[in-house]
Amino acid sequence: MNVPGDLKYGRTHEWAREEGDLVVVGITHYAQDQLGEVVYVELPEVGNGAAAGDELGTLESVKAVSEFNSPVGGEVVEVNERLEEEPNLVNEDPYGDGWLVKISGTVEGEDLLDAAEYTAMIEAEGA
Asked: How far is CA 53 from CA 19, 64, 87, 111, in A?
């Protein structure tokens, strides 16, 4: 299971990476693996506010429709428009080109896991 050490992780399988005053958000390798092939991504509107834990959008796969949540509080400042035409990027590169949104804010003070804690959590779930 690919769990990069430089990211923070939400308990609902989103990752967060700080880039300046923004937080880039996506779903983890484990989450995309559980979903299967992603065929459609519904992203939030730029300008929407979100508290940590709020639903941001949905991912539709051949198996199911699943929501994704904001791991941090802030405002959505950018969405990954490539996913409209290439939703499979979520599967192919979940920590790179398959990112979902960028949120103004920080991971500081949020209830997030480091890579070791996240790995332990998914192992406890039976991954």
From this structure: 20, 20, 23, 10
Please identify which residue in the block is written with the tokens 């299967």.
36
Query: Torsion angle of alpha carbons 109, 48, 53, 103, nearest 10°?
Result: -40
Backbone angles phi, psi at 122, to 5 degrees: -70, -30
Return the residue matching tokens 């959505």.
76
Per-residue pLDDT tens digits for 86-98 = 999 999 999 999 9
The alpha helices in the chain, defined as continuous H runs, are 29-35, 82-85, 89-92, 115-124
Which candidate, 8, 4, 116, 5, places its Cα nearest to that of 72? 8
pTM, whole model, 2 decimals?
A: 0.95
Domain 8-118 has CATH 2.40.50.100: yes
